[in-house]
User: Fold these one by one.
Assistant:
Number 1:
Amino acid sequence: MREPLPPVLEPAVVERAVAAALAEDLGWGDVTTEALVPREQQGRGVFLVKGSGVVCGLSVAEAVFRQVDPRLRFQPMLPEGSPVERGALAAHVEGSMASILKAERTALNFLQRLSGVASETAAYVAAVDGLPVRIIDTRKTTPGLRALEKYAVRVGGGHNHRAHLGDGVLIKDNHLAALNSRGLTLADAVALARARAPHTLRVEVEVTSLAQAQEATAAGADLLLLDNMTPEAMRAVAEWTRVLPGPRPLLEASGGVRLETVRAVAETGVDLISVGALTHSARALDISLEVEG
């Protein structure tokens, strides 16, 4: 089997995110450092991991230091995506102590946040190990950081759902409610999407029962989003699709999936499990920057 390609993070995306974060934190200067630390004083900082998880965002942390002071020397001590335990050293940075201190919090914010997302994703992926299912993210991301957080999901072994609203057709309950108020049906919704959206995009429909799943499939849906359905109901849909003639729709389980329940969901026969908690509830990995004069 071919090894999966490593996750890629576009440099331009990183530079924009870092510039915005630095403007937020350093746009008015650092009055403490400027009062206490002379610009010529040299030093070294080490990123110390204080918990267990997956390291992610080293290149983003490096970009922070580079934007603050291009003369700083940043060196990762672990490959991106490495599993770590408490006490691990993730990277070090050398150069002007004042520059290191000015960049410290922003670099840590990115590194802790992205490592937290990668760690949470890795836990879900491990929980369904051996089953033919993918763990995928959602659009429940931190505003302005979606590309970075979806990258962290990939580093953790997960996969990405839509990156934005133009990335695929997903007909949800509120879309159907809007159409129903005009006398249109689920089948009409799929037909309109086919007629008006680019032909290159697949059409996914949110359903809450076997009957709705059958209606959406008959209308030509490519994917079914099984929303907040019980494992028994999801299994019934999966068993029904397996006996369909011709191509069957992919099945995505969504809604209220937790780490302790994700394997039971995977065992129903769905193809994808979307988990908003990968990004909206991931706990930051505890990492500190220890400086030496």
Number 2:
Amino acid sequence: MTPFPSAAHLASWAGMCPGSYESAGKRKGGKTRKGSPWLRRALVEAACAAARNKATHLAALYRRVAARRGKRKAAVAVGHRLLTIVYALLADGEVYQERDLTRLDERRRARVRQRALDQLHALGYTVTLAASAA
């Protein structure tokens, strides 16, 4: 991995990093740059396979991005994440450890709860939270 100083350099070489087109302070999106079509195809195919497994961090990333951006862009995003993971594994010589999904779900619930409280506060309501007896 010595030709690439970082995972971002590898992703850029492979053509898997997101483009950035900005004008007047507004993000207008962007296309990924040209890279190896075979590597890109293999990464996107691996990303689609990883997205089918429901209990992984990569599948959660796919679902999050696909809800906002669409399935194809989500596959490219997961392919990018796979490439950065592979770089880290090869550069450091470590074994892959899957991230804990329960912690991610708790963070998402906390963000949703705080957003709802902020919206009610902006509308002029005072809310006190009490745990439900489930």
Number 3:
Amino acid sequence: MPLRIGTRGSTLALAQAEKVIALLTLQGVGAEKVIIATHGDTAAGVPLHEIGGQGVFVRALDEAILAGTIDAAVHSMKDIPAKRPDGVVTSGVLARDSPADYLVHAVPEESIRVVGTSSTRRRAQLLRDDPSLSIRQLRGNVDTRLRKMREGQYDAIVLAEAGLQRLGLHVPGRSLPPEVFVPSPNQGTIAVVCRDDPVVVERTALLDDPCTRQDTLIERAVMEEVGGGCFTPQGVYCRDGHIIAEILSLDGARQVRMEGDLADAAAARAFGKELRKRASDLIREAYERLGLK
């Protein structure tokens, strides 16, 4: 019986699921996709922090796994919350694609004044780079965001470069260096989560890339110690054990930045605790300004 692979219905989510299914097929594992609706897709006009953050995209798929509707699900790993339900495991972490953000623009770059993004991190980093910019909320799938820019609602928008690559889209703009515009933890990585069943785990683990898993686990350990989720402007990026992490004020005017070389999750947790300590005022301020507790 083929594995039932759950996915959201967006074009990007479908492309990611189809990539996983193709890779499983190459390993001799049969699989078929099952589309699951999520609250994050149906509330596209609401800022993410008001509907529960990126984890809202994962919850419905977790529930479908636990209910037995699907065997596994495909996610952008950056969307997976730190706290996971019992009975669900991350069994496959694919080799990482580009971790960078991509600035897509409809006007010459020197003429950009209005930029669309729903990410507090991207907002803060853009304002740090150019405080004169006007940053406006932007939700929806990749096609919707590009359409709104082309209609003139924004001069530019920021997307994950990996998403554009997976969709085969070539758009005017440039990649933002991840050493400067530090990405979200696990950005550019596809993960497979599944029911904690030895047979399903064994099959989906065939896609696991050990180097990417190690780097992303270090990023997640730092993220978990820092806390804040998508509410606090934070970037965490690890490559071959070298980590860059930063926390910014919502307006990008202040930041705390740390770098180091980390060998394992224990070292990452110590690093994350220190980062949280140094940036405690920025984290508290972000929660208060967004009306969160």
Number 4:
Amino acid sequence: MNLLPNGPNDGGLIVCRGAYRLSNQFHEEFADEEKIPAWTNEWFGFTEKGMQWLADKGCEWIKVCAEPGDLIVWDSRVPHYNLTSTTSQNRFCIYTCYIPVEDVSQEDLIRKRDAFETRVSTTYWPNAMHFGSNVAMCNGTPDPHNRDKPRQAPQLDERGYKLTGIPYIRQK
């Protein structure tokens, strides 16, 4: 969900048009390729060789431009990354990812619940084991508007509560 204007030079999402059709072939051909180190096995970093492979297959990189309120939906098998802005426009968006709850381990659900209850940031991947800091930085120093809890605690309806994954934690 885009929250600020995001034009062609403002940085942000870039996707490789048509490459999702080649995802299985790409990963088969690059199975033995040395991987760029990552904090989760869900992430795949593209090497120069991989980028050239996509170009040779006729895939084109497209910068996604969006206005506030625009919702961008795509299959994460589409090669994508973020560009650095060459303008002074800030980038502000919300990333969301959904997968079937049966694909998330009980351990991950417990960690997600704990993160939700303590208001610690996580990745947008429901099954990734990476947690981050809530400290926003401004020019290299903590933003003076930081807080460790929201002004108001979230009030979730039944659907919102289910989307946290908490109801799917099995009791021992």
